[in-house]
UniProtKB/TrEMBL annotation, chains A, B:
This is Transcriptional regulator, ArsR family. The lineage of its organism: Bacteria, Pseudomonadati, Pseudomonadota, Alphaproteobacteria, Rhodobacterales. PROSITE patterns: HTH_ARSR_2. It holds the Pfam family HTH_5. GO terms for molecular function: DNA-binding transcription factor activity. It comes from the Bacteria. SMART domains: HTH_ARSR. Residues 1-93 form the HTH arsR-type domain. PANTHER family: SLL0088 PROTEIN, TRANSCRIPTIONAL REGULATORY PROTEIN.
Length: 116, 116
DNA sequence: ACGATCGTCAACCATTTGGTTGAATATGCT
DNA sequence: AGCATATTCAACCAAATGGTTGACGATCGT
């Protein structure tokens, strides 16, 4: 009954969560490591990660006692498409959009070289 | 001290507000007319519009006793760019993106034909 | 000047959010 | 077995959110 965009945008509305996503852009991380740079409890970060998971923006896989967090960038697609409905642009042709991105950046899928 | 993205994404997280934005895509509207299709008080809509205004997503101009609401799609740019930092796409060349959109849809700026 | 319309304000309310702490659970190490 | 580490759970809290209603100030039409 509730639009997934609700969860995605709500998840993105918090700066801590956006920072977490940016961190995960570089590499998958364990919950404890995600929490390390923040001045807030591990439990708080755990909640943030749960929210990101519910929004589909990350996935969490438990391996041993460590739970690994992985960015799921595809979850941003819906939101991105929605937003592109504004501006002067018409409802967007995603296939063409992807072709455009490919030709622009010549990037193989999943091949993002971390800059740090 | 607080990131404008906080306000933009928070504004977008509510389905009522997203619907309002979609309505304004077709045309500028008076507050009362924005409120009409919703089953909630005018005051509630007025608050939603205030939130959209604070996020920069719309502007409001009072002409006579009527306050006109106008979509400000540029406010989505920052959020859009932020999001495009994810996925497999690298930090995006917006100019190229716009050229792409132009060539795809061949649409004069502001010329959006409403489908309803 | 009067009444109707447009929109906001103020007070209130229930629910959600973002954080805390301490206990609990699950796994790994020796 | 026993202890340390990784993570969540539960209870709690303050503040923010999304809604209501009723009163209010502006402006329009007659």
């Amino acid at each position: 009954m509730s639009d997934p965009l609700d969860d995605v945008f709500a998840a993105l509305a918090d700066p801590t969560r956006r920072t977490i996503l940016a961190m995960l852009l570089e590499d998958d991380m364990a919950v404890t490591d995600v929490a390390e740079p923040f001045e807030m409890s591990l439990a708080a970060i755990s909640k943030h990660l749960a929210i990101l998971t519910r929004a589909g923006l990350i996935s969490q896989e438990k391996r041993g006692r460590v739970k690994w967090c992985k960015l799921e960038p595809d979850a941003l697609r819906g939101a991105s498409v929605w937003m592109q409905g504004f501006g002067q642009f018409e409802p967007v042709n995603l296939d063409a959009f992807e072709r455009f991105l490919e030709s622009e950046f010549n990037t193989a899928p999943g091949d993002h070289s971390p800059e740090a």
